[in-house]
Design goal:
The structure holds 2 protein chains of 2 kinds.
Chain A: H1 4-35, H2 43-61, H3 64-88, H4 93-115, H5 140-145, H6 149-167, H7 169-179, H8 181-186, H9 191-216, H10 232-239, H11 244-268, H12 276-280, H13 282-294
Helix pairs in contact in A: 1-6, 1-9, 1-10, 1-11, 2-3, 2-4, 2-9, 3-4, 3-9, 6-7, 6-11, 7-9, 10-11, 10-13, 11-13
Chain B: H1 3-34, H2 39-47, H3 49-52, H4 54-79, H5 87-104, H6 110-139, H7 143-163, H8 199-215, H9 218-228, H10 230-235, H11 240-267, H12 279-289, H13 296-317, H14 324-348
Helix pairs in contact in B: 1-14, 2-13, 4-8, 4-11, 4-12, 4-13, 5-6, 5-7, 5-11, 5-12, 6-7, 6-11, 9-11, 12-13
The chains are: A mainly alpha, B mainly alpha.
């Protein structure tokens, strides 16, 4: 007999919370970046690079926090390259983003495979749960206390991002250079500097997301392992109309649908049947269905994708 | 612009592109040598391997057809300012449709079924891109976002079809695949010595037809105006929605047809190995390098077909994963964009 709580709701909520940080870190990064006028299509390439470095650094040092630093460093380097090409050289943002994706897709696996041709053992461990003996407390322990700290950091980040964009003067400048760079420039804002910082912040967040992917989504590194889940963030940001709280809703509801179909497949025994792939596409269809409903009022920053030249 | 300036500019762009491509190749060579490969072997596999055996030549033309067909679609949409990131998804749906028609419409006589398989693939790609097109035209939804989402959906859909409705009865265990197409449904080769199929001249003919339909008519100016500024297009009285719908649907149909030529002219059966190939992204590069020009994309496609085959055999010669080719393509793309930027800056400002 399946119990509504222990077999259905608790696993769904717990999986939803566990997977959310990947989407939340990435979408907050992309929101800040796009608010400043720079869309980063290289998102998944940057994630793949930092995911690769996460596995390698954790393997060498045995410490997930150092691996996080490594992931941030790698994302910072690739992100600086992207930001330089898109902002300073003013190349087409979409084309450069795709180029960065290809670069990351190829380079991440080549570096990993030439360094460790036969893969890594032991497997990745990752961050510890928030409370060590979380299983002592039923329900709440599984849903909230078994999660690692980044789950909560990512939720706080949503609040901070929203506050930053709407209430701080730097946030105002970020929005200004995305909406009207000319006016911002006249007010004495260094447009490309603000854009550079916003884009770099975005890339660092993709780095955290790439770090988080290890362990929580996959146990080892493989070719094309993120498989489009990084690109999905672009859709979430679009659906969210560039608003942090709506991106939180998008990320959580996407994961609820994902966890629910996953749970259904596990309980119904359809997991191995061919229909399971139809269930697997439900979260994406869900996101797609939201776009005509909510995307109607979507209003992109006016100078998104448009490079700025002083004078 | 005077003729000699134009010639000079063309030369300069070519030089920049050659430099960019050289940079990408250099990066690949560095990786190969770093992994312990021999430089001479790497160079000869890169440049000579693709043409030194008939399998390589066959591969070049298979990819040429794929890149060119999909690249024309991407280029068409790009003219109207629309990014079709979903060529990979449309290709997959086209491939699935070939076998859907073959499996469920087997009652048709041979020539009709043959044509229906290709048309079915075109229809599949067209329907797949109809979703972002409708969302864009009716709701103003961003086509990049929707085509990205549909790529993932296409992958799952194709995997479902492959492991269920169009699966061969012969695959009880292991990875699912379809039946192999019988000889009657294969696109025949032109000569028996080198396996180049009739798909190659057919693609070139499509390219020339599209060249006359697109580049030599007012359509080009209309599409370019839509692509550059919706405001201007509106004032000029251009039917924006019509241009968008035509270019997008054509892009989807072309990607679907690419799937049909790939299966009927080369692979003959569908399996999971044809799924995550990223050909859709290479098609975008070809469209950009060919400067959205229907014939230019053909040249770019041939070059990238040769280069990717060569780079793959170079990687294999030194036991480097063939994924190095993606990194090389990324570097080439950055270099080419930089080159375009530099050559335009010289004359515009």
């Amino acid at each position: 007999m399946t119990d509504l709580f222990t077999d259905i709701l608790i696993p769904i909520f717990s999986t939803t919370l566990q997977l959310s940080p990947f989407y939340l870190f990435a979408s907050m990064g992309e929101i800040v970046s796009e608010k400043s006028g720079v869309a980063n299509m290289g998102i998944e390439g940057i994630m793949l690079m930092s995911l690769m470095s996460t596995f390698i650094v954790e393997y060498i040092t045995g410490n997930a926090w150092i691996a996080l630093l490594g992931a941030l460093g790698v994302a910072g380097v690739v992100g600086t390259l992207f930001a330089f090409l898109a902002i300073r050289v003013r190349l087409d943002q979409i084309a450069v983003g795709l180029a960065i994706y290809l670069l990351g897709l190829g380079l991440s696996f080549v570096i990993f495979n030439t360094t460790y041709p036969s893969g890594l053992t032991p497997n990745y461990v990752g961050l510890p749960p928030l409370v060590a003996n979380w299983d002592k407390i039923p329900y709440i322990g599984t849903v909230f206390l078994s999660q690692n700290i980044l789950v909560y950091v990512s939720l706080i980040l949503v609040v901070i991002t929203s506050f930053f964009l709407s209430r701080t003067s730097l946030g105002l400048r970020v929005r200004a250079v995305g909406e009207n760079p000319k006016a911002a420039d006249n007010m004495g804002v260094n447009v490309n500097k603000v854009r550079f910082l916003a884009t770099l912040f975005g890339c660092l967040m993709f780095g955290v997301a790439g770090f988080y992917f290890a362990g929580n989504f996959v146990a080892g590194f493989q070719t094309d392992i993120i498989a489009g889940r990084g690109f999905i963030v672009l859709a979430m940001v679009y659906f969210a109309n560039w608003k942090p709280y709506r991106a939180l809703f998008a990320g959580l509801s996407f994961n609820v649908v994902y966890a629910a179909q996953n749970r259904y497949l596990a309980l119904s025994g359809f997991g191995q049947a061919s229909v399971s792939t139809l269930f697997n596409m439900l979260p994406y269809v869900f996101l797609l269905a939201l776009i005509p409903v909510f995307g109607r009022k979507a209003r992109a920053p006016k100078f998104l994708l448009k490079p700025y030249r002083k004078g | 612009m005077r003729a000699d300036t134009q010639g000079l500019r063309w030369l300069q762009t070519t030089a920049y592109n050659a430099f960019a491509i050289g940079l990408g190749i250099l990066a690949g060579l560095v990786v190969v040598v770093y992994a312990g490969g021999n430089l001479g072997v790497a160079l000869s596999s890169l440049f000579l391997n693709p043409v030194s055996f008939s399998g390589g030549i066959q591969q070049i033309f298979v990819r040429f057809v794929l890149f060119y067909t999909m690249g024309m679609g991407v280029g068409l949409a790009l003219k109207a300012g629309l990014w079709n990131i979903g060529a990979q998804g449309q290709l997959l749906v086209g491939m699935v449709m070939v076998f859907v028609v073959y499996t469920f419409m087997g009652f048709l006589p041979w020539p009709l079924l043959y044509v229906s398989m290709i048309l079915g693939a075109a229809l599949g790609g067209l329907l797949w891109i109809a979703v972002p097109t409708i969302l864009r035209v009716k709701f103003g939804a961003n086509e990049i976002v929707v085509t990205i989402l549909l790529n993932v959906v296409a992958f799952n859909f194709a995997f479902y079809m492959l492991s269920g409705p169009i699966k061969s009865a012969g695959t009880a265990l292991g990875f699912p695949h379809t039946v192999e197409l019988p000889a009657l449904f294969k696109i025949p080769g032109i000569t028996s010595a080198v396996p180049i199929t009739y798909a190659v001249p057919a693609t070139i003919v499509i390219g020339i037809i599209l060249y006359f339909l697109v580049e030599r008519t007012p359509f080009r100016v209309k599409a370019n105006t839509v692509g550059e500024s919706l405001e201007t297009a509106k004032y000029a009285g251009i039917s924006i929605n019509r241009i968008m719908v035509i270019t997008m649907l054509a892009a989807g149909a072309l990607a679907g047809v690419a799937g049909a030529t790939y299966l009927m002219g080369y692979r003959y059966e569908l399996d999971i190995g044809s799924f995550s190939t990223n050909y859709g992204l290479v098609a975008i590069i070809c469209a950009l390098v060919g400067r959205k020009h229907m014939l230019g994309i053909g040249l770019a496609s041939f070059f990238f077909a040769y280069m990717t085959i060569g780079a793959e055999s170079m990687a294999l010669s030194a036991n480097v994963p063939t994924y190095v080719v993606f990194a090389m393509e990324g570097i080439m793309m950055i270099g080419i964009l930089l080159g375009n930027y530099l050559s335009e800056r010289r004359y515009v400002t």
